[in-house]
Structure formats: C-alpha cells, structure tokens
Amino acid sequence: MGLVGLALGGCMQATLAPSSDASFTPRDRQLLAHPPYARADIPESYRRHIVDYSRREAPGTILVDTESRFLYYVLPAGKAIRYGVAVGEEAMAFSGVATVGKMAEWPDWIPTPEIQARLGPYPPRIAGGPANPLGARALYLYEGNKDTLYRIHGTNQPEYIGQAISSGCIRMTNEDVIDLFDRVRQGATVVVLPPGRSAWNGPIAGPHG
Hints:
- By secondary structure, the chain is mostly beta strands.
- The protein has helices spanning about 25-30, 115-120, 175-185; strands at about 5-10, 10-20, 50, 60-65, 70-75, 80-85, 85-90, 95-105, 135-145, 145-155, 165, 170, 190-195.
C-alpha cells in the first residue's frame, strides 16, 4: 500500500495493512444498521491500519498524536494500529498522561455545565444510542482517581474525523472505537501529545486536518 503518514529525516512510517473489521455485537449491528447521520467517506490516511511504530510506549498503551489527528494502539514487535480521530480545539484539548479509568458500551451522555453554557441547552442526561454524541463506546480518562472529564469515544459526526473540532474529547468513528474498545484494558496508559508536537518530533508529511 506504499508509504504514508509521518516522516522524520529519511525515516517513513510504513502502512503495512488495513486492520481487521471491528467485531460488532448484535446490539451494535441493530443500532448501526440505519444510523441517524450520514455515512462519511473517511480519507484513506485516516482509516484504520497496522503501521510500524518506533516510539517506546509499551504494548497496550494508547498514544494520541493531536497534531496529526491519529490515535495509536501500541502492539508488540514495533507495530501499532493507527486510527484517524477528531480532536479538541486547541484551547479545549486535553494533553498529558492519563489512564483508562472506566469503559462503557453505548454510554449515556451527561453534558457538563461548560458544554451546557457554550453549546446547549441539552437535557441533563441523553440516553446511549446512535444519535448520542458519545457514540458506540467511551473510554473515560482519569488522572489518579480523578475523572478528567475527557473521553475517547465514538461519534455521530464521522465527517469531522481528521479535524480539530470537538469540545476537547477525542472522537473516533463508531466502527473504530468498537475495535479499540475490544483491545484496550481498564487501567491502560493514555498519552495525549499537545497540539504542535508530533509523535515523531518532525515535520508531518501526510495530510492532517
């Protein structure tokens, strides 16, 4: 499939193969059979792939390259699964090291007071489902025992993958977040790089939102 993605000097990140299809549950198939949003044509560079991975994070770690709009799930033997994501606008984006403190399938959404003030009004709780902004799965990011209020989650707006558009959380297509959810374990480390810093500390050769 050729070489795409990130470059540092003469080193390129090789896209090795598309990752396998997500493993849908019967409920997933039912809820996603006729989603209440338009299906988006995700650019090839933001589709799920297995890639070479030269950083030192341990297998099982999640790394979010905010600048390039990619999320990596680190595999053994110098490989990772790379997913395209939408990230938070710079003033609202989370960065740092967190852990997966909680995991949920088709989660309810409880808009924070800040979101209510900025984007609302919303009901105090929105039931899980394909119209819910959290989508099919959510990974809740914690620092110690404290919920950061940032999430890695699905979306009902897949057309924004590859952009900095969200209210700080990290959005994935519902298919991709299901795939990631099935791989991640609670307590996993999540590294979120700040805007302006590439995972490879070099210029970005591939497209980014």
